[in-house]
């Protein structure tokens, strides 16, 4: 049977960028004989409008069954007044939690044609291709005890960094598996100098590393890692780190390469019966209400998210490269959506114009 894909366009520019991905999926069916069983459903504000919840149970059940989920973006000013429990973001959080997506993959890749766009010197970023693996379901954002308590005559805000060996083991495994398919280097980042969770993190990652003798493992304190990431990012291949450090490091790494409209991501969980991990793919950007409905959004982040799905969920690495190569060519030809143009840039193409160029 065909590989299955659940598409959740969501809100704002989500449906606009996803429309271009749909055309590319159709192209793969027509031109490459690669046909997907695609189903589409609502998430976020769109789901709330129809069902009164940002993720219907039926949609959740479908997400658990398919080979991969591709999501656009959720949220918008219209929903800011909603109760916390039904906010659009809750739909996304529920997907991540119930699918137990513990490894968040954030590539920082710099297309040569956009190297001038980076805040760093061109030779520091040109050709950059690194992958940050952030632990996504544990650590200080979830650890107990937490809360704001009274102590003496003032209040104290408390959060707890907590990692079990199995939580570290599984995300480390994701990182080593990735490194085997890439540059065969893993750099693990923590603060073992000041944190017990960091000491355990380093121990467990080292143990897992012994099962991957081909992969070169190094360790770095996360603050030093942040410096190295800005100084000479090309020294890295795969970086694996915890939830908090990964949040910061991946956002910083993202900006090495330019626009939010270019950044894909994947969140992976445990392997399914077919050996591939449970997976949710989504652009890093949000629903961009400021440009929604105007045909201005850059669809590349969403298209690259689909390329990641081709590679990690459908075992179609060569087809993923074909798609990435098409994007590289389009950018080298000077095709730009508005977000990729500087002050005195040429005329931008529309969302569908960028889709046309990629397809061509
Ligand atoms: P945002 O990512 O939606 O937009 C930030 C800026 O980047 C805006 O100026 C926007 O126009 C621009 N931008 C974003 N994606 C673009 C693209 N593909 N092409 C061209 N320009 C692009 O973040 P913001 O404004 O903070 O949040 C807007 C809404 O999205 C909020 O409701 C927020 O909660 C939600 N959000 C959802 C996320 C998700 O679905 N994963 C992630 C981040 C925010
Ligand atoms: Mg962040």
UniProtKB/TrEMBL annotation:
It catalyses: (2R,3S)-3-isopropylmalate + NAD(+) = 4-methyl-2-oxopentanoate + CO2 + NADH. Mg(2+) binds at residues 223, 247, 251. Residues 4-358 form the Isopropylmalate dehydrogenase-like domain. The record marks 141, 191 as: Important for catalysis. PROSITE patterns: IDH_IMDH. Binds 1 Mg(2+) or Mn(2+) ion per subunit. Its EC number is 1.1.1.85. It holds the Pfam family Iso_dh. The keyword Metal-binding applies. Catalyzes the oxidation of 3-carboxy-2-hydroxy-4-methylpentanoate (3-isopropylmalate) to 3-carboxy-4-methyl-2-oxopentanoate. The product decarboxylates to 4-methyl-2 oxopentanoate. This is 3-isopropylmalate dehydrogenase. It comes from Salipiger thiooxidans.
């Amino acid at each position: 049977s065909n590989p299955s894909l659940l598409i959740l366009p969501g809100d704002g520019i989500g449906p606009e960028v996803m429309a271009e991905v749909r055309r590319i999926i159709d192209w793969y069916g027509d031109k490459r004989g690669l046909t997907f069983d695609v189903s589409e459903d609502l998430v976020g504000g769109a789901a709330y409008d129809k069902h009164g919840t940002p993720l219907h149970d039926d949609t959740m059940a479908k997400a658990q069954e398919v080979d991969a989920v591709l999501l656009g973006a959720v949220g918008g000013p219209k929903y800011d007044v909603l109760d916390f429990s039904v906010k659009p973001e809750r739909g996304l959080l529920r997907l991540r939690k119930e699918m137990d997506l513990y490894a968040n993959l954030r590539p920082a890749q710099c297309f040569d044609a956009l190297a001038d766009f980076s805040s760093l010197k061109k030779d520091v970023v040109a050709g950059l291709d690194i992958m940050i693996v952030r632990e996504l379901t544990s650590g200080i954002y979830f650890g107990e005890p937490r809360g704001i308590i009274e102590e003496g005559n003032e209040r104290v805000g408390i959060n707890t960094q907590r990692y079990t060996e199995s939580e570290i083991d599984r995300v480390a495994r994701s990182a080593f598996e990735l490194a085997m398919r890439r540059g065969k280097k893993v750099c693990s980042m923590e603060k073992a100098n000041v944190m017990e969770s960091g000491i355990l993190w380093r121990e467990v990652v080292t143990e897992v590393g012994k099962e991957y003798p081909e992969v070169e493992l190094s360790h770095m304190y996360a603050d030093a890692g942040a410096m190295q990431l800005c100084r000479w990012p090309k020294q890295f291949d795969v970086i694996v780190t915890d939830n908090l450090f990964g949040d910061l490091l991946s956002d910083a790494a993202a900006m090495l390469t330019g626009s939010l409209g270019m950044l894909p991501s994947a969140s992976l969980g445990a392997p399914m019966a077919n050996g591939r991990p449970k997976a949710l793919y989504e652009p890093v950007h949000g629903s961009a209400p400021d440009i929604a409905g105007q045909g201005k959004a850059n669809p590349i982040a969403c298209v690259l998210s689909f390329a990641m799905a081709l590679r990690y969920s459908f075992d179609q690495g060569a087809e993923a490269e074909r798609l990435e190569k098409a994007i590289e060519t389009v950018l080298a030809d000077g095709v730009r959506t508005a977000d990729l143009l500087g002050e005195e840039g040429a005329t931008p193409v529309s969302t569908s114009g960028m889709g046309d160029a990629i397809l061509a």
